[in-house]
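User: Please predict the structure of the protein below. I'd like the answer in structure-token form so I can feed it into my own downstream comparison script.

Assistant: Understood. Taking the following sequence of 335 residues as input:
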Amino acid sequence: MLKILICGAGGFIGGHLASKFSKDKNIELICADIKPLEYWFQNFDNSKNYSLDLKEFDNTLKVTQEVDYIFNFACNMGGMGFIENNKADCMLSVLVNTNLLRSAIKNKCKKFFFSSSACVYNSLKQKKTFIEGLKEEDAYPADPEDGYGWEKLFSERMCRHFTEDFGLETRVVRYHNIYGPVGTFDGGREKAPAALCRKIIMAKKNKEKKIDVWGDGEQTRSFLYIDDCIKGTLNVFDSDKQDVFNIGSEEQVSINQMIEVIEEIADYKVEKNYQLDKPKGVRGRSSDNSFVTKEIGWKPSLTLKEGLTKTYAWIEQQINSNSNIEKFCKSNIEK
């Protein structure tokens, strides 16, 4: 039986991966997160759950004992507003990855997965609205998102050197704006798809016509639905390739275009109150999937509209039922 540890299992991507593994009777699942268990987005009776701080080396030693595989999603992060205003806290996540890598060597773990981010990419390549998709080599020369992006890029390099120096098998992917149900949709850490779904749901519910939009709405991104993310993650992990891979969508849209898609789903039109002084991030960002498709055979299966339809329905259900609102909206619980 495989013994698998998911760090950051109380969060969004980690929780969805834990959900998948919890259904496999050949896996002994261990889950760890800094949040109290009642604030985990998902938890499972057949997993061993730890609520502890993985920035402490003793804790990573404890949870990695006799573990075969480690998946590290644990980091302090959120949407652009959180990232721009909490750079030091984001950088401290490097302690989690450092301690887990050291513990993996000490406890003779077989394979280590690190979740990186599109925020590692050179900002000079993201100055225009609609850009060519970013290839893996575009991370260098290094000029990532300050704080969060630097931590991710440094941790990528740590994985590489632990492979070179200690023989630890590592896998690294760069996620491009993952979204979907069972994730944060309010409180300051939510990302654009969830935030905009929530705003339009509330506008429709309260018969209001105007929503706030950060920036001018012309900034572009690509967004990947969570089910495609999990499939891509496991395809990379199960492969024999130790390169860094993009896991994202090539369907690049502006924020204004995404609002139009959500309006169509909601059957409700809104006016946009552009807040030009709010954090906006880079002007344009999208994924080039040519390398991961060629080497791994993975590509997304859902369109943005299909994924947003599922996400909108889930957020609307949460708001209307008032169930677990605090869990998915609390801003002061570290992820």
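That's the full token string. The chain is about 40% helix and 20% strand.
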